[in-house]
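Why predict the complex rather than its parts? Because the way molecules touch one another can change local conformation, and only a joint prediction can capture that. The input here totals 594 residues.
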Amino acid sequence: MSIIKYGLIVFLSWMNPSHAGDALSPMLGNPLSETTIQQRNFTVFQNGQGLPVGQGGVTAGKKIYTSRCLSCHGFEGSGNSAEELAGALHRLTDNPPDKTIGTYWPYATTLFDFIRRAMPMDSPGSLSTQEIYDVTAYLLFLNKIIDHNQTIDNKSLANIKMPNRNGFINHYKNNN
Amino acid sequence: MKFKQIAGGLLDRRYFLKKSLVFSVAASIPAYLTAQTPLELERTQWMSEPGLGFSNYGQPSPFEKKTIRWTMANSHTPGNGVSWTPLQDLEGIITPSGLHFERHHNGVPQIDPAVHRLTIHGLVTHPLEFSIENLLQYPKISRICFIECGGNSNAGWHKNPIQTPVGNFHGMVSCSEWTGIPLKLLLNEAQLQPQAKWLIAEGGDASLMNVSLPIEKAINDCFVALYQNGERIRPENGYPLRLIVPGWEGVVNVKWLQRLHIASQPSMSRNETAKYTELLPSGKAQQFSFFMSAKSIITNPSFGHQLNRFGLYQISGLAWSGRGKITRVEVSADQGQTWLDAELQDPILSMCFTRFRIPLEWHGQAIVLSSRATDETGYVQPTRTELIAQRGRHGYFHYNAIVNWALSAQGQISHVYN
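Output of the joint prediction:
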């Protein structure tokens, strides 16, 4: 009798969404080794945590951009079918505003992260770490954030102060 | 029985119910009692031959070929775009799975569930991975809730009202019954560490889309769904696993969910900085806006429908709020000067589509139909003018203003601003 009662309570707690988290779990998760976690972990934080060791420069980045990105993103980052990456003509308070890497993106680390995840769109994952740093440097140069002879690496990228670094208001925090 | 009729021809929402009682008493004598010669029984072709055999998976009637998602993609990158739910052709609150809206950044991955894993790591005591086979054995919950893209209805910011069917304008919202495992259960198994403040969710498609969520939401009501409307989730909706974040913008309902990184800070990924943030007139932008605020739209009649007779119509529409239940939908037929309560169709669920209805007596009067939703927090859907006063015109995301349909004397409908 007491077993049935116990079973029923657990069952009811599964049924009720508000208590579902309290239900007993079959505990079927498998432990992971540190190596496996590292192999799966794409996350890059704005403080640079998660960036792979490496560096890159503008000149090499321009070559990669021309062969791998230009067809969609256009000469010097604007004009083709895909999103504008540079060449903003308007400020954020203009009508209409231009939201590009140079005018809008708050962190340079995001650029490395997004390119590593998703670009080039026709062959994601095909760039080496070096090439990702190179093309990131070139896009930062096109947006007048670094000089043509400046290099970036996994240490310096997080220290680059993007023009719109302080442009965001945490709406969630302010409304909860 | 007298029914209040207000400006424009709207009738009390109980009209249909009462009226039918009155009519049934006065029905005339049926023809079979008066006919002299026996009449030939009517029989259509499909009453005169055996029908088709059984099918393994049913399809809509061939006469309903026009009820489809409208797709819009980048010509260079066909997997980057949107498809919209044809809200103008649908009724009730459940969106058929095959008509659920889509937003993909780089196509629909064909994921083999035998290979797929959900990884939980970061600020947890036990980093874990779950196979789909194992997840299917966990206790589940079901919940009917809407998913709305943060960019839905963005044509509302345009200077001139867009003239297009309601689905092509507001159809980046759909509503399904999702079934899956409360996230809390999996997080408990992995054991969150005290510094855990954010959960970074990542999808396993070609764009490896990732976004950050406050951990309290994840614990409170998020779940990982395996089923949509009773069957396993369709590939374009996240097969084999989707994160459901009730009431929050679509982008955080990560499809093809493969990794949950528990952290003390958000990742500041592209889709929570460059996109899904709302630029304000000050030049600052709102970030982590998450909640989809209350909204309603009349779906029938709406743009593209033609009223071709005088008499009684039923106005039908949808309302929803990311902050809870819809408590009221009012409809106006005179540009928002007077409002009448619409009937809210059961069930009325939190963070779910609510269907509303109200009768209209139409005799060729040119009117403007609008709907206005209120949710259980007391929030009232704003007019476009109010929304723009707060947010300017360049925020792109989170547009939820009142929608107005102008009905002409010819029975045609166009979209107008207030």
